[in-house]
Amino acid sequence: MQKQRKIGIMGGTFNPIHFGHLLLAETAYYQFGLDEILFMPTKNPYYKKLTSNVTEEDRVAMVKLAIENNAHFRFSGEELKREGATYTVETLRNLTGKNPDTKYYFIMGADSLYHIESWKEPDAILRMAVILVAGRGGGPSSSLNSQIEYIENKYDASIFSLHSPMLEISSNDIRRRLRCGESIRYLLPHEVAEYIYAHQLYV
Looking at domain 5-198, which of 3.40.50.620, 3.40.190.10, 3.30.70.890, 3.30.70.260 is its CATH number? Predict the structure, then answer.
């Protein structure tokens, strides 16, 4: 009997991708014995307006540069194929339909877990994927533990905490630094920084 594959999904606008994203994915890979992590840029998230001078192609290029030297990280354009707003539930339906023998692990931050009931069809999301949630400060707080317990009980969901060192890095701060002419060194991979400077992004 073929062993069930365990695939992590790291979604986001990645505008730009940084070491916080990469460390979280690496932690999930080792903590849960995953086979690989899919880095999946969102096309047009319904909740977030993207930076005007950065194209979808730019975000894709930066993700590919960031993960190219990690054999268990893989780029996925699953959400970029669809027109209009993208929803996690549709992505998971497509993936589970194509790969019924794969178990998916959806990586998210604590903020997303607090708001998951406002997402489209949260019950279906929680049925199709195991949720791996990263707490602020490297571990779950009592508030986050309460939310995990509440969602697990209400939806019969599988939710686990990621024990990842927290890097206080945000894409928003990186964009601010670039606008102000400040250094972004040590916040994201060198190759990504070079791409940003070469294409004069976020200025």
Answer: 3.40.50.620
